[in-house]
Design brief:
Number of helices: 15
Distance between the termini: 32 Å
Helix content: over 70%
Oligomer: single chain
Order of helices and strands: HHHHHHHHHHHHHHH
Length: 327
């Protein structure tokens, strides 16, 4: 009996995820309409621009440049993130409607085209005793490239779906790329100050995503999303995300071993190559899609995000217990 309270004490609720789900639930019951929706939409655009400006100021170009010498590892992670993932998610959208709901096609394609996470990828690689410097370089490079490449990939793959608004790419330029590049340019002068206030900026980052989810879900609810999506559709989505994650984990593991990488590099490839960033995905969805479509498009990302954290946490512990690793 004494072990049970100790176990429960180690299980901490993910309040960030709870708040994200709560924002979607609130929008389902009390969606923003009219002037309130317009005001929140403007606030969202300003917050997105600020977040990407700070991402640009924070992203360590030095780590990216230092890690580029290990080009085979980074090319493998890049291929998993921006080639394997989009191919798999595009394949899922081509399945029959009773397997893959057509309403979620835009979200699946967006999920496949997103960059890797930074914090969780590095954290899992560290727990698993993998190549942490390579993970820092790969995750940073993925996000740096993803700002440019993700909208282009989504636009290419979604052209036939008609889900992208005519001004989407100008919106990407103004809301994402311009602030991001400005932050990178100003990094030598403001990078230290931004890093010093990392905790406060992290709260701004998370708060912006919660706001994006509420505004996007509000528009989707007003547009009648829950009359088009059922509970069974969400169960199907969970199954698709589970199969997608399992496939990517298996393929990256086999590829790393077949290509002759050592265990530390394999760990970096598996964890960096299997993640998708909610922090990047929510703003990109809000900027790239019309509001009603953005709300639906975030659903696959939210499901996959939580699934990847749970599965990869267990996998990292398994790697850490291997006898051929050293403290």
């Amino acid at each position: 009996m004494s072990g049970k309270p100790a176990l429960l004490g180690r299980i901490k609720p993910d309040w960030y995820l709870i708040l994200i789900i709560s924002a979607g639930a609130l929008a389902s019951v009390l969606p923003a309409r009219g002037d309130a929706a317009e005001g929140l939409g403007l606030a969202t655009k300003i917050a997105i621009a600020m977040v990407f400006f700070l991402h640009g100021a924070r992203l360590p170009r030095e780590a990216v440049l230092a890690g580029l010498t290990h080009w085979r590892l980074h090319l493998t992670i890049f291929a998993a993130t921006f080639v394997l993932f989009p191919a798999l998610t595009l394949g899922f959208t081509r399945l029959p409607a009773w397997i893959s709901p057509p309403e979620l096609a835009a979200g699946l394609i967006l999920l496949g085209c997103l960059p890797s996470t930074i914090q969780s990828s590095i954290a899992f690689v560290a727990v698993a005793r993998g190549n942490v410097p390579a993970a820092v370089a790969a995750a940073s490079a993925s996000n740096l490239v993803g700002v440019f490449l993700t909208p282009a990939l989504v636009g290419l793959l979604m052209r036939a779906e008609g889900a992208i608004s005519p001004g989407a790419f100008w919106s990407i330029m103004i809301q994402l790329l311009l602030p991001f590049v400005t932050g990178q340019v100003l990094r030598p002068w403001i990078g230290t100050a931004v890093a010093r206030h990392g905790a406060l900026l992290g709260k701004l980052d998370r708060g912006t995503i919660i706001l994006i989810v509420y505004v996007a879900f509000s528009s989707a609810v007003v547009d009648g999303v829950w009359s088009r999506l059922s509970g069974l559709d969400l169960v199907r989505l969970l199954a698709i995300c589970a199969v997608l994650l399992a496939a990517v984990l298996a393929i990256t593991t086999v590829a790393a071993r077949r290509l002759g990488f050592d265990k530390a590099d394999e760990i970096a490839i598996v964890f960096c190559g299997s993640k998708k960033s909610l922090a990047s995905g929510a703003p990109i969805a809000a900027a790239l899609f019309t509001p009603a479509i953005a709300g639906v498009a975030m659903i696959p990302l939210m499901v996959f995000h939580q699934l990847q954290l749970m599965v990869c946490a267990a996998l990292a512990q398994r790697y850490a217990r291997r006898p051929d690793t050293t403290p």
